[in-house]
Amino acid sequence: MKHSLISQFENAGQGQVFRFWDELSPGQQTSLLEEAEEIDMEEIAQLHRSLVLNSQDEHHDFPDLEPAPFIAHPAQGGDSSAWAEARNVGDSALRSGSVAAFVVAGGQGTRLGYDKPKGIYPVTPLKEKSLFQVFAEKIRAAENTYETTIPWFIMASHGNFQDTVDFFESNNHFGLQSGQVHFFRQGRMPAIDLEGKILLSCKSSIAMSPDGHGGSLRALVRSGATKIMEENGIDVLSYFQVDNPLIKVIDPAFIGFHLQSQSGMSSKMIPKAYAEEKVGVFCTQQDKTVVIEYSDLPEDLMHARDESGQLKFLSGSIAIHMLSREFVNQMGGAGSTNTSLPFHRADKKIPTLDDEGNPIEPESPNGVKFEMFVFDALPFSEKTVVIETQRSSDFSPVKNAEGLDSPHTSKEDQMKEFVSWLNTAGEAVATDANGVPLQLIEVSPLFGYDGPSFVKSWNALTEKPDLSQPSYLE
Ligand code: UTP
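# uridine 5'-triphosphate complex -> structure
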């Protein structure tokens, strides 16, 4: 007898998913059914209608768009006493153990062209530490400072989950206790062709892909992560992306501003370096904070300037957020109101099969994937706060194999930060015209994770390293 799920797919015009059913082994049939079960066909049909057939709906006019207000960094004229106060609030929250770290690491890293989870990528200038090791050491450094345990939630995808867990296990969790590191999987969505047909990746499997970093909110709830938070008195998650080794994983001032403003979701901004920089922009629309993607921001707004000549829409979004547990529950489906994030469409080359079952490796996009973006949650947060940070101490992502935002630029940025700390400690370092040291320098986060912590360790050294040689400070 035909499985009822197969009939449902046929009735929805998606019978092609089971086209090779009779050729499959019982095990393959079971796994195909399991994948099919995850799919909400009504949702797929609706996304096809709204994002593929009526795709012009995705492009809006923004008649009422204004730049979002932000709290300026003290180095840019911000109020240092307000920052000091926020830092105190953050320090207390950290000491009381109510903050956890959260990295989204479920991406596919296509641009980098790395076939393992991106967090495994070697990223530091001298020791070639992985991104995951850098974050783990930053967490340990904060734990030492605040004499507390900082749980770490790590979201992976179905595709990279096991490799991620294995990497941590084979490295003894980089000195963290295994019980404080919580891994979970994000959701996934099927890819469709332009006619709305769900694509197969092989005869026994649907072309499924991770549902975007916005999927993190419901995955936190569905996986039980928010329950673990509640049981452990964790109120706040420090959200960051896996590709940014410069990130201040734990930033007391940011935590403080978030708590002081009773915000559900808070964000960091950097001033855009130039009008066309490919980062989203924080804006206000009908009293709500929103991020408008660079590709959606109309040209005239992108280039608009204020009276002082500064870009009007200045605030670049760098995917660093603070999330309250309550807000995650609300957005992740555990709240009393049923809010959910919109999906976006991404046209992709999706390897699939032809009618006879021969593999197709498309040379141009042949289908559509659906993803949610975490910043789309911002307008749902009753209160939000955006604070300014400095690119040089918070943001240098590894996105591309070469050129902009590559391992090369990120290593240079890490070293420039180390040089700035050495300078603060009164040490002159030979650099090139861009401030990159002539010899490799690396500082372990356990030695120093910002200017003051570095200077303290530096001053305590009985023997200073010879910086005219490659130097590692640990
Ligand atoms: P990117 O947008 O840079 O995507 O992700 P990516 O998949 O890593 O890289 P490309 O576009 O294929 O080259 C930004 C952050 O969001 C996470 C990534 O792991 C990264 O930390 N992410 C992205 C997820 O966790 N899940 C997703 O479905 C997508």
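# post-check
The longest helix spans residues 407-424.
Residues 104-111, 118, 155, 186, 210-213, 215, 241-243, 371, 399 surround uridine 5'-triphosphate (CB under 6 Å).
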